[in-house]
Design brief:
24% of the residues lie in helices and 31% in strands. With 138 residues, it is of the alpha/beta class. The two termini are 22 Å apart. The longest helix is centred in the first third of the chain and has 11 residues. It has one domain: Rossmann fold (3-Layer(aba) Sandwich), CATH 3.40.50. A hairpin with a 5-residue loop joins strand 6 and strand 7.
C-alpha cells in the first residue's frame, strides 16, 4: 500500500490493529525509507508518550506504554555479527512477550522466534510517499 508520510500514524495503527496478537515486528528498508519514523508512529499508537529515537548507537531503546508495559526498539545496523546481539541479551527481549520493533535485523533474523510480522518499507512514486507491505512469518 502506498501512502504519504503525513498518514504514517494511521498506517502504523492499522498494522497494530491488524496484527494485534503479535509482538515482534521486523522492519526492513533501505536507509532513509522511514523505519524509525514508522517506529515512532507505531509506538505512539500503542501508547508510548515519550520521545522515540533511533537506537543506532545504543542498539536497544526501551520505552513504556501505559497499556503494554515495556516496548523494545532495536537497530542492528552497527553490529558486526549476531554474537553482539546475543551478548546484550537479545533472547531475553524477544521472549519477554513485549512489543519488539527491530530495524536492520538481517544479521540476527535466524534468532528471531516465529511468528513475527515483517514490515517492508520502500520509497514510493514521489519523495514523500512510501510503500508498505506486511507479511506474517510463521
Amino acid at each position: 500500500m502506498e501512502f504519504s508520510l503525513e498518514k504514517i500514524d494511521k498506517i502504523a495503527c492499522d498494522i497494530v490493529n491488524q496484527y494485534s496478537e503479535y509482538r515482534i515486528f521486523v522492519l526492513n528498508g533501505e536507509m532513509g525509507t522511514g523505519k524509525t519514523t514508522f517506529s515512532k508512529a507505531f509506538c505512539k499508537c500503542i501508547g508510548v508518550d515519550e520521545e522515540v529515537n533511533s537506537p543506532t548507537f545504543a542498539i536497544a531503546n526501551v520505552y513504556h506504554s501505559e497499556d503494554f508495559g515495556e516496548v523494545f526498539h532495536f537497530d542492528f545496523y552497527r553490529l558486526e555479527d549476531a554474537q553482539e546481539a546475543i551478548e546484550i541479551g537479545l533472547s531475553d527481549y524477544l521472549y519477554a512477550g513485549k512489543y519488539c520493533l527491530m530495524e536492520w535485523s538481517d544479521i540476527i533474523i535466524d534468532y528471531v522466534p516465529k511468528p513475527y510480522v515483517e514490515i517492508n518499507i520502500t520509497l514510493g512514486e514521489s519523495i514523500n510517499t512510501r510503500l508498505v507491505e506486511t507479511k506474517l512469518i510463521d
